Amino acid sequence: MNAPASAQPFLPPTQSRPVPTTLLDDLKLRFGAQFSTAQVVREQHGRDESAFSLPPPDAVVFAQSTQDVADAVKLAARHKVPVIAFGVGSSLEGHLLAVQGGISIDVSRMNQVLAIHAEDLTAKVQPGVTRKQLNEAVKSTGLFFPIDPGADATLGGMAATRASGTNAVRYGTMRENVLALEVVTAQGEVIHTGTRAKKSSAGYDLTRLMVGSEGTLGIMTEVTVKLYPLPEAVMAATCSFASLADAVNATIQIIQLGVPIARCELLDAKTIRMVNTHSHLSLQEAAMLLMEFHGSPANVQEQVETVQAIAAEHGGQAFEWASTPEARTKLWTARHNAYFAGIQSRPGCRAITTDTCVPISHLADALLDSVREAEQSGIPYFLVGHVGDGNFHMGYLIDPDSETERATAEQLNTQLVQRALKLGGTCTGEHGVGLHKMGFLEEETGAGAVAMMRRIKQALDPDNILNPGKIFTLC
Amino acid sequence: MNAPASAQPFLPPTQSRPVPTTLLDDLKLRFGAQFSTAQVVREQHGRDESAFSLPPPDAVVFAQSTQDVADAVKLAARHKVPVIAFGVGSSLEGHLLAVQGGISIDVSRMNQVLAIHAEDLTAKVQPGVTRKQLNEAVKSTGLFFPIDPGADATLGGMAATRASGTNAVRYGTMRENVLALEVVTAQGEVIHTGTRAKKSSAGYDLTRLMVGSEGTLGIMTEVTVKLYPLPEAVMAATCSFASLADAVNATIQIIQLGVPIARCELLDAKTIRMVNTHSHLSLQEAAMLLMEFHGSPANVQEQVETVQAIAAEHGGQAFEWASTPEARTKLWTARHNAYFAGIQSRPGCRAITTDTCVPISHLADALLDSVREAEQSGIPYFLVGHVGDGNFHMGYLIDPDSETERATAEQLNTQLVQRALKLGGTCTGEHGVGLHKMGFLEEETGAGAVAMMRRIKQALDPDNILNPGKIFTLC
Fold first, then answer.
1. Which of B205, B229, B253 is the C-terminal boundary of a domain?
2. Which residues of B touch A255 (CB under 8 A)?
3. Domain co-membership, B311 together with B195
4. How many distinct structural domains can be found in chain A?
5. Which residues contact A172 (CB under 8 A, 6 or more apart)?
6. Model confidence over B377-426: pLDDT tens digits?
């Protein structure tokens, strides 16, 4: 399959806009020790988990308050200099890279849990709070925050990329779980979107417009999210299958039957091998579903029985249970480390990661052909999937110095994305467009939708200072 | 409590923009029998369930296809004449009223269910399909569409107002249940937003931006929604309480415990009396919760036991069960007719309807004081509530010829809204802003958020032809 020109992955330009010395002086004056132009600090803020290598931002501001963010944006706006929000740098798609230079606004010190409204199942946090930190903070209330993209990402970064992860099949994504935001606009003004009410029809849904806008429409300075009662009973299990197809078809049936499964994750045999090596485990090296069930004890039991029957129909065997918190933590840590296990399986490599999501009935078509193509290419890869959502990731483990390997991996990704689009899916289920999926957005949504996005961007950020050069080009 | 000027309900201007004869000629030429300027047709398209009386639109186009909508918009755009989408006219907030004149585009003939993807739990419909029609169409698949605002509204209208209703406490609102849209823009172009994938991070969330935009950013011509497996067991029940406070406090506890109740509705004693008269029933004339439980038989049983225990703690009595479809239909028909029962209780009246939604812990504060104020006013009213969501409606039943009654009702609504906003809630949980809540939007969201909405509107519809004069003023 040859990719048409429109679907080529985007190669970011590296032409920086000029950053006047007067701006750096003004920032230094305003922020003192919270401001740095040191090479090492800039470089820390100039790379993420993508396979792109680009020059770092010109300077870094360590914001400690909404006012800090607003002031930094206002100063940069005066000189039309880019500003890029930075959390913990766990983006996989180049979101935080300074493709046009500019100022990185690091919000990791804005890490206060501002309010826990246990009585309303909501919490308000600063954008630098990570998901683990939030869960630690609400532990004593009997509530939890379910969204779990694997990395201990910040809530700001997760909201900005519309992240999801292993629990989304039951609890939804950041789209469903962010209730309200405080946002600094391109003009350095502070606005509020949404309320703590569970539902609202009050005007345009600015909350959902900001969620997933990848820092291009505003910088989030407060995030109000939903919490959920900790389930009375939790049961995790692994189940091995003779083939990937069997595991995928079992998943499809689980979802079609409406089983309210909390997590339904796929790993292939190769990836299990990597995980075993990395985490010193002895999981059976076969296609495997990792599942978790939440509910009352009786309800969990019902779900388990249904899923066992479905798995058996597809030759599933070796059900292994993890009912204690320790056993579950071990299992999910292994799953979360799959990415790093993959990276470590080939020293010096970088991962080019895929992120398609398709309607559940097409999951087998989307996944199995992609695996076949990867096998034929000879490029090492790992495969993990939030398959309950129709979303899976292949990580092509390339030698970053080999242009051939990079081109092969990009070609594999292009074929995989085009297959997903033909099946009614999306090029990115949860990572965001960033730089890496820019070449696919128009093919997915059509030129009209991208033109509408451009008009919104130009209306809200006429000087294009908010994380420029991401999601789509402006011309 | 005196309302500040900023929170006065909006009084719509009635200055029409000129509609040139050439436009009417062009529309007649293009649409033939699908076009009408007959007074009776215009008047049918110039009123809804709100208490406003305004001049009707200048003409009506009966669209039968996306191309019809696009062509009508293009012709109107040439003369900068307003276009207003019309479904079945069940808006409660004046959404479809021609405050600046213009062309009503009636989409009720675009009533085809275009695709049912039972294997993916999705359906694609034209905007004139009603919720009952969709449920009829999917009945044989074992799936259903849960969003139920009471009226048999069109899916287009429900999406445009971000509607919800009785099932939202478990299944969410149109915000959570619209996956993708086809939309005609202000330029008459056809764009697509979203895919059938369950989740996506591909660019700005234009789907959610359109949902709830009340026809001011585009006219929906296709709506793709989620479906759900029909629950294995369904049980409905009513429970009476000695006081409104007891019923509300029981509700708060049900939600805080995370019971996955499907419906949790409140009616007060007065409203029950109206419903009994209207529907020839003999429900106990006391504050009552109407509830519905979905799940497996065992799971429903668990929910019922939990809720019974909570209700008992709050003095709930006379639990009455409706487990057959017929008994449930009777119960919910009575609930859905509460609005009309209210209207008929005072011949010749119009209802001024409230729609606040607050964080669940504040529901008692929001509701009980509002009832007290209504009692003191002497204006007759009905009270129904999607209380599981923190959302309730009072309908002040006014003599439309009495300016005193209208002013009193508006003052009651203003006090009720301001109370909800102070409690962290919204002026509209599900009806939309339309005309009637325009005076409250800025107080709820702040001037910055409204300014951002304006910039988006001006960017996408620079000539302000899409349902102008709704949600916010442009200057």
1. B229
2. 121
3. no
4. 3
5. A164, B176
6. 999 999 999 999 999 999 999 999 999 999 999 999 999 999 999 999 99
> How far is the C-alpha of B165 from the C-alpha of B168, rounded, in Å?
6
Rounded CA-CA distance B419/B432 in Å is: 18
> pLDDT by residue (tens digit) across A316-330?
987 899 889 898 988
- Residues A223, A247: one domain? no
Domain contains A445: no
Residues of B in contact with A432 (CB under 8 A): 201
Does residue A189 lie within any of the structural domains?
yes
CB contact under 8 A, A453 and B390: no
Residue B218 in domain: yes
Residue B145 CB partners (closer than 8 Å, separation 6+): B123, B131, B134, B135, B138, B177, B225, B226, B227, B228
Nearest CB neighbour to A120, from listed B213, B360, B431: B360
B428 within some domain: no
Give the domain extent around A85.
Answer: 5-106
Q: What is the pLDDT of residue A14?
A: 62
Last residue of a domain, one of A194, A229, A264: A229
* Judgement on whether residues A303 and A350 belong to the same structural domain of the protein: yes
Size of interface A-B (CB pairs under 8 A): 277
Among the partner-chain residues B121, B161, B296, the one whose CB lies closest to the CB of A201 is: B161
Best of B200, B299, B471 to disrupt the A interface (most A CBs within 10 Å) is B200
Q: How many CB atoms lie within 10 A of CB A138?
A: 20
Torsion of the alpha carbons at A321, A323, A324 and A328, rounded to the nearest 10:
60
Q: Are the beta carbons of B264 and B289 closer than 8 angstroms? A: yes
Tokens 């490599």 sit on residue: A349
Judge contact between B83 and B467, C-beta under 8 A. yes
Whether residue B72 is found in the same domain as residue B187: no
User: What pTM value is reported for the model?
Assistant: 0.96
State whether B426 and A456 contact (CB < 8 Å). Answer: no
Shortest Cα–Cα distance, A350 to chain B (Å): 23
